[in-house]
Design goal:
Order of helices and strands of chain A: EEEEEHEEEEEEEEEEHEEEEEHEEHE
Largest interface: A-B, 30 and 34 residues
Number of helices of chain A: 4
Distance between the termini of chain A: 58 Å
Radius of gyration of chain A: 19 Å
Largest sheet of chain A: 8 strands, mixed
Structural class of chain A: mainly beta
Oligomer: homotrimer
Shape of chain A: globular
Strand content of chain A: 35-45%
Helix content of chain A: under 10%
Amino acid sequence: LAASPWSVRVQRLEGGRRQGVELIEVDTGLLRFDVLPTRGMGIWQAHCGGHRIGWRSPVQDGPVHPSLVPLEAWGGLGWLEGFDELFARCGLEWNGPPYRDGDRTYSLHGRIANIPAHDVALEFDDKPPYAITIEGIVDETRLFGAQLEMRSRISAVPGTTRLTVRDQITNRKSQPSGFQLLNHWNLGPPLLEQGSRLVAPVKLLCPRTADAAEVLDRFDIYEAPRPGAPELVYFFELWGTGARDETVVMLKNRASDLAVSLRFSLREQPRFIVWKNHAGTNDGYVTGLEPAVNYPNPRPYETSQGRVIPLAPGESYDVETTFEIHLGKDTVVAVEREIDALRRQGQPVIHPAPLEPYVVP
Amino acid sequence: LAASPWSVRVQRLEGGRRQGVELIEVDTGLLRFDVLPTRGMGIWQAHCGGHRIGWRSPVQDGPVHPSLVPLEAWGGLGWLEGFDELFARCGLEWNGPPYRDGDRTYSLHGRIANIPAHDVALEFDDKPPYAITIEGIVDETRLFGAQLEMRSRISAVPGTTRLTVRDQITNRKSQPSGFQLLNHWNLGPPLLEQGSRLVAPVKLLCPRTADAAEVLDRFDIYEAPRPGAPELVYFFELWGTGARDETVVMLKNRASDLAVSLRFSLREQPRFIVWKNHAGTNDGYVTGLEPAVNYPNPRPYETSQGRVIPLAPGESYDVETTFEIHLGKDTVVAVEREIDALRRQGQPVIHPAPLEPYVVP
Amino acid sequence: LAASPWSVRVQRLEGGRRQGVELIEVDTGLLRFDVLPTRGMGIWQAHCGGHRIGWRSPVQDGPVHPSLVPLEAWGGLGWLEGFDELFARCGLEWNGPPYRDGDRTYSLHGRIANIPAHDVALEFDDKPPYAITIEGIVDETRLFGAQLEMRSRISAVPGTTRLTVRDQITNRKSQPSGFQLLNHWNLGPPLLEQGSRLVAPVKLLCPRTADAAEVLDRFDIYEAPRPGAPELVYFFELWGTGARDETVVMLKNRASDLAVSLRFSLREQPRFIVWKNHAGTNDGYVTGLEPAVNYPNPRPYETSQGRVIPLAPGESYDVETTFEIHLGKDTVVAVEREIDALRRQGQPVIHPAPLEPYVVP
């Protein structure tokens, strides 16, 4: 068995809006993180090297049970009543800002994060590297609508500070269908602070709004919390390498001795989005690092841009993201070098102004 | 006590969207069926003679807890996120397609199927025929609105393949009120297949839409699953007999050796609707046999046609339906003969085109 | 310890729409009442001197779990599907009738009554008067929205017929915010009957609607239940006294031997509203006595009138109300004398017609 001590703990939470939420705590010995089957296999928070990795959401009493999240409320922004995770998926039928189509409201970031997983299973490999895996299936289905199934496997290896999310999305309909997926990784203090930096192999950069365009030259630097600061969003294409067109992005603290990286294949997730929310300390001071199959525009626009992934009946699509925490300057520098190597493929194209609408015209 | 072995099992379901749903499995020895108090006393599925009787809904992880069914979503079609039962009631304040009245959405098929029953009780008769009964009360009530109470009794006799649903709807308001009720019995494979047939003592037949009118001559024959096929709906009046104007309808398989019949009084349920959904195998290949007090049009239209049942303060209305499974050619033929006898009362009136709107004008 | 026998019982309710609701029954020896942490620290009902104090709501199967209350339904009146309490708070971001602002629905009476409390605690003082306290925290928060926290403490002293609700509302946002609060105390039979009377130190009285204006001279007298009677609402200012500008109002039965009083500071709650619902016995025959920080108009109107309480970041506002049951003529007369004394401060100003809109123009 694994040389490092590890553990898995399953709980059902009690009290308030978290009543009935199932939480599975995985501890690799170096990294501890909480999987939330009840919230669509999201990850609530992680702990590593004495740091809490995640963010301080205004939702203080979460994780919130999906039955108490009114997605259609607030003109389709009800998702925000339950949003407090380190990792929340946006999709599967659509994601992005709310929009209306006739009498239908397509609410912010879709439904997947608020659908409880079923057939949740724990797996422990009995051979090296002795991976621990939590599996769960989330069905985003209804009669006369999409029938998208997500089989999610979240794995970690004892003695590492790394976890991997592997989602397989399958079209269970007897007809062609399509899906969208944006992986919303959210980081606040202590990793996020004035002077924190995004390190990314940027191939293309485009601000989502005029606000974001105005401070485009500082897209990779973070400011101190500032109550009332507007959210800033940037859309990216990245450089990758190898057969799977692998890339890596990183958020590091000011001292460059604490960082989080995300690794993913640009074949699977060709888009990347950064959400900078320099809000007040209590108001959601956070940044989102978001590998995605699409940009978070209303689905009709994404469809027109060919960014909804088509799936034949029974067809599947795999998405894998590896999240790692880096402790100490040496490990942070090593990742920076890796990103520098990717950058050498070419100069970034930078659009000084928004290219795309972010509401339905 | 009953000569046949029988049993009743009560469970609370665990995991996914079914978390917390109460399920009562009744086994008569020949027929096993699952009552869902949590979903308004619906019936999830039945098993008989080695066959599963019910349908394969796109909702694969049901039965879904009502707290996770957003009725108002999808322009009022949210009911479809929880719809996977052999038997689901539509009502009580209204049923039919969603419509809006000012700022109010009247969502598809009303609320009753998503209101948990209270005061659920099991009864076992100690004298022949030793009936087993599940009782539950469902309140569709609110201040300044309807106060409709449904006392439902679902009974079965050991050693039979039959169950009876007796619903008593009472107006608990101190003012006159009204209700609608459509009993949605849903059947898929193996009973439903290419060549399955509806056998009914038709007095009047009217297609709901132009689609249905086009294939009117095949209203009683079922096609193979076909992805993307439109749903077809037919409205009926039936012939009955006796003091209670009893009628019977049947769905039989191609070989005529497996069938389901519904018996009901036309005094109680004067309308009958058939929903044919020749969709793909995974997309809800199913037919609905629907005895009802009204047609599933928006309530304002049904009111104009005198098809909302008025109830004085404290007044009740009883609705009883007997569902039976027929195994073997002989039992199927016997029911066909019975229906033939009813048919002899007159030629059916057949309307070649829709007579009624199915949306609010 | 306390000389009087007392008890506290905690239950989680089972069955129907109350499944999972936590109920804490406090018995002072003379007064028994049920606190509902799951329904925002409301109070379901009380028992005293052999009387049930509360009302008979059309919601017969409550208390209803918030996950089954669709606030946005019915054009924003969904709150009424869960409303059956002796005491329900309306707020905190807004209260009053539903209104729309762009694509957002601000539903009837806000969200606080349907948010489960967390960190619920029981406290028993070990020194006189040995108060029993139930504490709970209710968060009305979301990203990009209000972050209002209510710390509620409901206390009673053994051997009394009195309970005190102390709510502390805190702005947890790093930005200025505001809140509204209306305390909805609801009383039906046996206290409410033909000839019951409101006794209040009225400084100003204004009917909310033309209906209410028409019977203005009988604002303080109650009629028998009458199916279909319209609700009548009156807005008040009251006379108070002392450093905290304390006031008291009372509802007494016809015989003046059973009454309920509410005591509160006009500094904390400067408004008072009476809701008279002379409906049929089964339809919600009830009156609401409602101390409040604001009038129940749409928030934009209340903002224009300076009746939304501003809160700086981290700032708190305390609201305390004492509810007491009076058994026997002597105790009722004593409170009447107290109210008479307050009245001597001046003649009431009575507006013969509505002064304020009750819908958004």
